[in-house]
Design a protein that fits this description.
By secondary structure, the chain is low in regular secondary structure. Helix content is about 15%, strand content about 0%. It is flat. The model has no long low-confidence stretch (mean pLDDT about 80).
Length: about 150
């Protein structure tokens, strides 16, 4: 399996490959450019390929047309008719007398609870206040913006 948790294996492999490399590969490529030219070989003449005889295209006899039997007459289906049902008569709802609101039971009065007083906190020390705008003693390094075009 690959080392997913240990990518530190790559550093030793990189050092090994770099230490095995040297400049001999470059010298070998220079020697390749000094190889003498290969003498040209004469072209070999091949005998002509034999020709194949041509055969006449076979003709297939025509097939007779098949006669399909006619389909029997299928009677059309009648549209089903749903019976009509009489509209049901719903009973009438009797008039309700005025509804009386239910009376809720009275809850007993709860005594007022005393809120405990927290001890007073000591006052915090005051720090120096800095002005909101501090004058910058160095001139601006960017050129001033001009609103007119030359």
């Amino acid at each position: 399996m690959a080392h997913h948790q240990e990518p530190s294996i790559l550093l030793p492999l990189l050092l090994i490959t770099l230490s095995l490399m040297n400049g001999k590969e470059v010298l070998a490529s220079r020697h390749l450019s000094q190889i003498p030219a290969i003498p040209e070989l004469p072209k070999v003449e091949l005998s002509p390929l034999p020709t194949l005889p041509t055969f006449p295209k076979p003709e297939l006899p025509p097939l007779p047309k098949a006669e399909l039997p006619s389909l029997p007459d299928i009677p059309s289906l009648l549209k089903p008719e749903l019976p009509t049902f009489p509209k049901p008569e719903l009973p009438t709802v009797p008039d309700n007398p005025d509804l009386v609101e239910p009376e809720l039971p009275e809850l007993p009065e709860l005594p007022e609870l005393e809120v405990p007083k927290l001890p007073e906190l000591p006052s915090l020390p005051t720090f120096l206040t800095f002005p909101k705008e501090i004058p910058f003693p160095f001139p601006s390094l960017s050129p001033p913006l001009s609103t007119t075009t030359p």
